Amino acid sequence: MLKLQIPKNRMNYLIKQIPLHFDAAVLEQGWEYYHKGRVADVDLKGTSIQATVAGKRLHNATVNLEHFADSSCSCSFDGFCQHIGATFFSLYAPYGRPELLLQQLKQQIYARKRPVRGASPAQERKEAAKANKPEETALPADWHRFFEGRFHGFSISHQHSIETFYDSALESLPGFAADWKSSMREIYMLHIVLFMMRKIEQFYQETKSSYLSYYHENGCKIAAKNCEDKLTELAQGMDMNAIFAAEPKHLLATLKMLGEFALQGKDSPIDWLFVYRFIWWKLSGQKEAQKEEIQRLDALLSKKEQLARKKDALIAARAHFHIIQGDTDSAFKLLELLAHPNAKDYFLYLNYYYNDKQWNSMLVWLRWLFKSIAQANHDDFRTFCQYWLDTTKHLESDSEWVQVMESLLPRSYYYYTAYLLQTKRYRQWVDLQLANRISPLNLYTLELKAIEEHDAALLLPLYHQAAERAVLEKNRASYKTAVRLLKKLHALYKQLGQNDRWEHYVYRLADKFSRLRAFQEELKKGKWIR
């Protein structure tokens, strides 16, 4: 592979020059030469790139970075040959996928050569440029056809290809709408993200059976999350209701398109339900459009034969309009019909109410989600606990939070134990460690120090339990562990001024395990018994 990387402005210059000098067939042959690894010894000399390209014999190709028309090759071809083309593609490789660029350049070449009857050369150039860019007045479906054409032939061959696609689409497509009015430009940007989401889902479906499916799936999930973040960023910066008033035709077409592919219930890395609900929520003022969508959803839900996942998506979408209208009770009744409820699907609402500081609404949703959170994955469970904790800070009492954490033990152990320490409920904290059979050796020193400073007596049962549990393992290493715990226990009794109680305990312990000779030896080493 090429190690030399020319500046990006020089590469952009070359990309503009290629369609003006090459025939499509010759350029494609150049790509084949590059693809077969026939380009070697690429070097920068002054303002030119020199490379050796293997055809029927070796040829020396020179690409001029400042005056491309002065580029040359040692072969006998009259004009710009496949060897120069192969060198160009090798120069482009560090920036993206050459096969993708080939399709774009061929389209430009065909457009340049297409005759325009009765047109001047200037008009021909204008028509060629027009054929290779989307129209501002075109409908979103036409934009998507243009996007598909730009990325025709793109395929997944390694785990980073998804990220390459994401970067390439986001870099190459927005510029076509640079001179559009702002409302149309914002809708166009939204469709770029929707297009990327659809393509990512397509890549995911196509590579599921590949032996590299794990890497492809991971790449798809990363790109999908980037798309969701980008869509959220775009939508939050848009006044959707004002844009709807200015461009109703395009936004209605957008909503129709979204409704067609977002509620299929497919196995997808894209959270389509989130995308659908997020955009509709931004259009909460469009009552007539909502009414039409509700009628469409009701008609789909009335069909008896539906796949469970698709029906769940339709139910969640229908419930969303109850929530938009402030009818949470009706939404909950509908959501109870879900075959496979997923707590993560409703973090959209928690996040909205959290940012809006609607703590009572947060509490309503947290209570409802309690039923399904126990089966949630680790990340969703953690998010749920954090929402609960943050909401509790704005309530008069934390009793409900404590009750919830106790109900969700042992999964809630880390959140509950941290909260008990934070609120200085040290006795409950110790009881929790005893119930979970946690050794002090597995706890943070600072936590134990805080309780010791408050009341050292609270730690006695914790060390008693851990020491005797270690002895019961009946091996030399465990006996040494028990002695470590006993040393700390001795220090605690001494700190409390209860030396008599310590001596009584240690002799009773020695008597209880009198048959464990190795343990007796460890006690003698500690000079606790004779």
From TrEMBL:
Entry-linked PROSITE patterns: ZF_SWIM
SWIM-type domain residues: 61-92
Keywords assigned: Coiled coil, Metal-binding, Zinc, Zinc-finger
Biased composition (Basic and acidic residues): 123-135
Superkingdom of the source species: Bacteria
Region (Disordered): 114-135
Coiled-coil residues: 287-317
InterPro entries xref list: Znf_SWIM
Protein name: SWIM zinc finger family protein
